[in-house]
Amino acid sequence: MPNPPKALFCPTCRKVVLATDDYFPFCSDRCRILDLGKWASGDYKISSPIQDPDLLEELARSKANRHPNSSDED
User: Fold this and answer.
1) More confident residue, 44 or 3
2) First-last CA distance in the chain
3) How far apart are alpha carbons 67 and 31 in whole angstroms?
4) Per-domain residue ranges for the chain?
5) What pTM value is reported for the model?
């Protein structure tokens, strides 16, 4: 496993943060809380759905087992 970087930019304010800093990878508690707030409010989104192969297979089976006259709208 590669060694973690010794310094990064704070994801919130872009200030340089050392790996030894208390709030790493953030520069402060304020930036950490602001980032958490963005996740909680939905500002950050995953751009594409996560595809679980087992779940996809289960969904395909359940669609195949539906009654032919049933609606696909749920």
Assistant:
1) 44
2) 45
3) 53
4) 7-64
5) 0.54
Chain centroid to Cα 22, Å, comes to 23
Q: Could you tell me the pLDDT band of residue 74, with boundaries at 50, 70 and 90?
A: very low
Domain 7-64 falls in which CATH fold? Erythroid Transcription Factor GATA-1; Chain A (3.30.50)
pLDDT in tens, 27-53: 999 999 999 999 999 888 777 776 788
Residue 54: CA count within 13 A, CB half-sphere: 0
Residue 17, φ and ψ in degrees, nearest 5: -125, 130
